[in-house]
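## Example pair
The file below holds two records. Each record gives the amino-acid sequence first, followed by its structure token line.
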Amino acid sequence: MAQEWFRTHCARFDHGGCGLKVAVTDGRIDKVAPDPDDPFSRGWHCRKGLSAKERLEHPLRLTQPLRRNGPRGSGLWEPISWDQALDQLTQSFSKALRSAGPESLAFAQGAPKGPEFFLLLRLANLLQCPNVAGSQHVCHMPREQMALLTCGFFPVADLHGPSQCVLLWGSNPSATNEEGVLGGHLLACLKQGARLVVVDPLRTALAEKADLWLQIRPGTDDLLAMGFLHVIVEEGLYDRAFVDQWTVGFDELRRAVQPYKPDRVAAGCRVDQAQIVSAARLYAQSRPACLQWGNAVEHTPNSADTCRALVHLMAVTGNLEEPGGNVRTEMPRLMPLKDMIALDDFPDRPKKLLNHHHGILPRLISVPSWMVVQSILQQAPYPIRCLYVQGTNPMLSYSEAPSVKKALESLDFLAVADQVMTPTAALADVVLPVALPMEYDDIGHYGLPHGFVTARPKVVDPPEGCRSDVWILNEWGKRLGLADRFWDGPEAVLEAILAPSGLSYREFCEKGVLFGPKRFRTYRDKGFKTPSGKVELRSSLLEKWGFRPLPEAEDPAPLPNDFPLLLTSRKPKDFFHSAYRHLDSLRKNHPEPVVWIPHETAARLGIEEGQDVAIETAHGRIRQRAHLTDALQHPVVSADYGWWFPERTDDPLRGWNAANLNMLTAVDRTDPVMATPQVRAIPCRIVPV
């Protein structure tokens, strides 16, 4: 059979969505290559996307529904049909629904990967179930929600505009392609002459390119952001016309930032005072300038204040809604998200959320994962007895991993949909094998605030026993008595999403990408979407809900004698969170979990390159391999996140706790607004093994 080429977009390797060309012969993929003509990625790609063929054909892939046939976590399974699997899902959830009500049910997903997350929310809302656990409290939502409260939209770095300066804060697009911001876009912006300021504790490749690199102490982003504001306000570098006409609370902000003088900030952040002043001046005096922030700023209990202060930086410098600044993107005409998730069908949802019980921000789309874990263990404020998990691996990705394991083991029923047998799937009662991108039609970036969606058409058939997440949820919803609120099949779901655009799915695929309209300075006609119609430097909504209306920052506490090092972490660029450790082409570049240790620190401890070491915090102990580096400064060490060992098939839980960073984290202290636990900047010690 002749070889045929298809065009699609990368999916589930990260958020990037790069354009790909796929060669297919006789129903199998021959080659995956970057698409230089893609209007979004323009040929940008990474190793992960090019390994798609291996992901589809890997021998560890699940290809048939399985039912537990022994003690939980024993690794004993029996194959079942899809009808049997869906029947067990339906019967287990229906029984709990009848006996204990919708609060006894829960659903979980990690990063949104396509329409399936919003279909999951739809199912939960139609069942009147308030428990959809997500990662949003440590990924994206602190930035989005603090921006919505402050200026009414999520400000996206306009790397395609005439930026004179890019302030890269806790973000490394050349390695992560986070949330639609591709490394190629940033490099093109820099090539056009934009200056670069990088805030990162690790000397990355982008830090080496930077005009100024601020090697911040992990966990002090709030302090540094307030220090930037202090310099800009005190030196009169703010945009007076914009501040006077389009903000409220500037005088209060001036008083709030006054204590954060450069010498105090320099001492707390371990950054040279002159560098702080120079970086603040460069950002403020470059018009326009954009701030690209990564989710590293959302990993401490001061995430809300950090994100608010960063939005204030964009605002007072006049860079909101400016070409080349931070802009308000608009989605193309698609089904409104509130209709997809059936939000109006569950009006009592805000009051029933665990978020309400814990007193955090009342308008999050999902429940912080640790709250669901806690509710399962404590059976309060109501008992959760059944959990459905898709597209996430809580044993690795949730904080305080031992508590997660205990919670999953205590459930009456656990079902997991995934591509391989993860540690989480190993504890399930039923495991569902999912079809993978390129094996089904899909839409990328729907529901995300970046102003575009990508076509992900099917290019090959899935294994006979695999089904897409959208198919599973749609069929399950109909079996739960909601046939009139779901669709005939996955194709109809996609057509419904696209209907407002006037395009069929096939017409959408011919275009490849749909962009929303680009508009700038819309506030001049409409104001900002806040209660005052202006940028609220003093937040009326936070004040109304009982939170501080202005951001504050903390000086870091001294490290204790028994834990004299400061632990941060990395998501290795070869993987996506805990996924793809089973792919040889990716694993050969990063075969083992690695902790980066400064040379100075290693010399003090007698640690050599490549030596196994134990990393210990007050909460646990793991083992990783030492890499000595001058890219960090003492006392900071940086460990790998997301590690388990799919190749350890003799262990049903695949070495889930050996190198798992979340053995070292806890939820004993969380952000009062966003419920973010301490994921980075954790006191630790390292012991040679």
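Second record, same layout:
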Amino acid sequence: MKKILSHSIIFILCCFVAFNSQAQSEKSRVLSYSQWIDEMAACTDSVYELRNALIRPVLKTDTVNRTIEIQAKVLISNVEFEGYSAADIIYLSHWVNNIAELKSLHFKSDLIFDYCSGLFPAIMDTKINGDLHIKNTVSNGDLDLRRVSTKGLHIENCTLNGYLGLNKVSTNGNTIILNNQIENLYLIESKLNEGLTIEKCTIDKNLYLKQDTIHSQVVLRFIKAKEIYIRDCLFEYPADSATLEMFRVSSSDANEFTLSECSFITSDKNKTLRLLSNSFQNYTSIYNCRIDPHLNLNNLYTTGRLVLGEHNQYGNYVSLHNVSYNDASFFDWPTLRSNIIGYDWLSDSEEDRLYHGQTDEELASTMVYDRLIQNKQGIYNLYRTQGHRQYANEMLLEIRDLQTRMLKYRYEQNPNLEAYFFWKMNQFLKTFSAYGTNPVIAIIYSLKVILLFGLIYLFFHNDWDIGSRKIIGKRLRFILTYFQVNKGLSELDQEQRLESQNEVVLLASENEVSTGKIPFFFTRLINWYVKSNLISDSLRKFALRKMDILSGTFSNLPKKQQRKVAVLSGAWFMGFLLYTVLLKVLNALTLSLNAFTTLGFGNIPTKGFSRYIVIVQGFIGWVLMTVFSVTLITQLLQ
């Protein structure tokens, strides 16, 4: 038994030694950074290939900051990079966080790193005529690319214990960052001419894009990060591109997503900026952006705040589909007004998915219609909760307009009296009260109705008029007599009012005889009444004497005096007519207001056909006053 055990131990030790020897032999070469760069520069073959090597800095002698051209295609596979130790700082100036810098190199063809490990060197101020590939690499530090110009950039299947930083990188081909695990990912002040794809990346902290210029499509997909922050970037998309999605963030998970101060420029209004099937828990914000394409928020789930902020410029529409948000969310209505539409996810064609609810074909899709109503109702409820009554009312107008179009469509599909009245009632409410959101409209229409019917009543007599034919005829006869008799205005007026004056005189005498026979109070009251009439008569006589323009008869006056009297009497008569007309207008407006408010005073002060006009106006007034009252109460309750 002991013999078997001892043999087993010896076998295990041999295996361990053999494994160790193999591990040592895996790194068949050990090079310094200077030796490695010199080898690449000296290679005359089409491909420079380095496998199973260890690149280790050498104190004092390593110089990596050299302007060197490398003609061959470079393939670095299964190479381990060592960084500098803390002691090396006294000898070397070219290091960042113990990582070597490859600086000022010019690669004439592709540069490929595959299955590398260790502390990956920083690549700076480098030009690569081909593509830069970094694949299957595990770095114990940062992967730092600064001021690198390359045709294409591919970073795939890497595990970085530090950050991935692309600072002022310029690419003319595709930029793909795929299936990496990174602490942070920074893309800053870079110019990417053939789009950007970041896919299947797990980022422990933040994905950060700032001041980048990116042409062609941008896709951020299957990303998990703490924060996705995109700021001050320019995204340009050619109109002739076959892909409709200009910018897409999909199937990603983050605590916060922010898109700010960015410009999305395209001349094709069918292009789309889409957030699809994402889960942003705390905060989702789009603000101060110029967005030419259609903005589509689709299956966006958040338990936090959603912000479509102020200063956004939408060149096209904004559609929401299955979007959740809390009451602290903010939708800037001045920029969203009339821009919120639906999204027809049932359509096979991406170009036909914008849903306005305008045509019969769109209204036939009741499921999409219901979802659009639901989305707009959600924003309406948000504005009401936050106290933005004006914004809520304007959103309600858009909802009711959409519903009115649907009522018209349903009537056209199945004509019946009930459907017709439902449709017309909505149109009526829009015209006279903006669907119950603006009582001022009902007041304005009420004033128009009162003025219109007041104009009609001018052509009909009512009991309140003082300018009747009998009264006007009496006045005209008074004027005829005045010009033909040798009497003044005061005398003629006294003659016409003799009967009423006699009544006052008779009342005064009877009151004097009755003194002591009736209560003292009534005696004094009658005396006051008699005196007031006498004073009124005196003032009337005084005024008429001052207005008297004729001495004797008109025919006996000289021609010059006749012209003067004619002018003065004409002015007096025109004043009388103006006074009569003003009273006529006032009575017509009073009658119109009385009929509109349906007060009535128990009697209709008109005769003949005008009675029916009053009844019609009363019905119109009842309807408009009801609309006004209900609308006002609704707004007060809100």
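Notes on the second record: The longest helix spans residues 559-596. The chain has a mean pLDDT of 84.
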